[in-house]
Design a protein that fits this description.
Layout: H1 9-20, H2 28-42, H3 50-64, H4 98-113
Helix pairs in contact: 1-3, 2-3
Length: about 110
């Protein structure tokens, strides 16, 4: 096996709380305050490491997603290819004029009646 399997949600949340330095009973405001403090301390521009900064961002995202409503994903059919009149190749003009086409259609109609 390559290593430990994926973390369970409870393990992931416990690790996120540890990274942010908050307790189990922390509310959304306390999570936000702890996140802001850790972000300022670990930001690469402030002398922190990018790995620690990414870990803080991931921890906040893990804890933050629980109190937000989940997006509704609708199973819509994939759209077909878009046909634009400017993208399609131009059709050649008909060889006969409109008057000739009208005359031919009129003759067909008269011949079908007889």
């Amino acid at each position: 096996m390559d290593g430990p399997g994926p973390e369970r949600p409870s393990q992931r949340k416990a690790r996120a709380r540890f990274v942010l330095g908050i307790g189990v009973d922390a509310g959304p405001d306390e999570i936000r305050r702890a996140f802001r403090a850790r972000v300022f301390a670990t930001h690469p521009d402030q002398g922190g490491g990018s790995a620690a900064f990414a870990e803080v961002l991931d921890a906040f995202d893990t804890l933050r997603t629980d109190d937000r409503p989940r997006p509704i994903v609708l199973a819509l059919p994939k759209p077909g290819p878009r046909i634009d009149m400017y993208d399609s190749p131009r059709r050649p003009l008909p060889a006969r004029s409109f008057a000739e086409a009208l005359r031919a259609a009129t003759l067909r109609e008269w011949s079908s009646r007889n």
